[in-house]
Amino acid sequence: MTPRAHRVVSRRRETADTWTLALEALPGQKLPLFAPGQFGMLYAFGVGEVPISVSGASTALDPLRCTVRAVGSVSSSLCATAPGELVGLRGPYGSRWPLADAVAGDVVIVAGGLGLAPLRPAIHHLLAHRNEYERVIVCYGGRSSAELLFVPELEEWRGRFDLDVDVIVDSAGSDWHGKVGVVTKLVELAAFDPENTIALMCGPEVMLRFASLTLLGRGVAKDRLYISMERNMHCAVAQCGHCQFGPMFICREGPVQRYDVIEPWLKVKEL
Amino acid sequence: MPSIEETLAATRMFRNLTPAQLSEIAALGEEAEFGDRGALMVEGEPANSFFLIRDGFVALQTEAPSGAVTIETLHDGDPVGWSWLFEPYLTHFDARSRGVTRAVRFDAATLRERCTQEPALGYELMRSFASVIVERRNATRLQLLDVYGHATVS
């Protein structure tokens, strides 16, 4: 429960208000191991603590990466943390993407806006174990080209022969020559075997509802859709109740949830 | 390459049409190809054609002081144009190819006459295009919600 100090190794700007921090453990300590989908609580000393998507799990060669959007005092403070300075981290918390269950089948990843961050470790895992899966498809939607995350990596992924990456934006400036529309369009266009597909989704809940309907309409079963519920989490240990969603605590039973389990609760207004 | 009739039969929006109706519509179609920035439709002109994209990428655009603004892009299997169904039968947007686009162009003016003479055909075509209009309207509403914006829609 106690945040442990970690040093910021680097800070990379993704968009005008979103940064990825790379963290390393202090001497004598180890970085915690986060499975794809799990989250951490990141602490800005003297300011506060927020749940943060782990966008890159630590390995022997890479630090832990967390992607943060500056929307309030805590997240803004975290985004302003310079390399060499310290932040607090506790975790890992929550459930993980069911990557083992997806073996030998197609994997469709649907991400919207900042939702690509918690899906990025899953994509890394799929690519590191590429031979274990059939088609791997990434459908990514954003507000505009200026607000897409991980653009250099997206371009690298698009260059691969064993990964289908498609990107679409809600509104386009003159500098955008790609697809324009909603991310559900990409799901309609994607080529996959609905009966042998697991879908992993993260993004605004409105987008998730429509994307789920599109996947269900294409024949993917409800128990093969997984959603990361990005709700307001405080304690991360199922005590404070801030993230309660029906009978579940998102910090404990989630954030990754199977669609057929949460479907009844998604329909409850103001839940 | 599948024939025009085969392509219509395989297109989801036309799934309720009878083989005879599909054949009648196919007879009014011809293959078309557009180069980069080629215009399938120009805003404000008579809507005498609609298209079914075989292979390619079409941008629906309108002119703004800053230049052409892309509202939506259309892709393989998508229809382009429904203004031919509704008065005053004028197109509302430009539809321009990005790269090379191969499509089937249908004589919409003649088809509109046929729909008046054959209400059953007209009804099914109206139903087919209505389904597309509803889908695109829902997508537009999703775009208008600006779900990725900083206001907490999620």
What does the model show?
The complex is a heterodimer of chains A (271) and B (154). Chain A is built from seven helices and 15 strands. Chain A is of the alpha/beta class and 271 residues long. Chain A has two domains: 90 residues, Elongation Factor Tu (Ef-tu), domain 3, CATH 2.40.30; 161 residues, 3-Layer(aba) Sandwich (Rossmann fold), CATH 3.40.50. In chain A, the strands form three sheets. Chain A has a seven-stranded mixed beta sheet, with helices on both faces. The two termini of chain A are 27 Å apart. The model of chain A has no long low-confidence stretch (mean pLDDT 93). Chain B has one domain: Jelly Rolls, CATH 2.60.120. Helices cover 34% and strands 29% of the residues of chain B. Chain B has a four-stranded antiparallel beta sheet. In chain B, helix 1 crosses helix 2 and helix 3 packs across helix 4. Chain B is globular. Chain B starts with a helix and ends in a 9-residue tail after the last helix. At the A-B interface, strand 10, helix 4 and helix 5 of A face strand 5 and helix 4 of B.
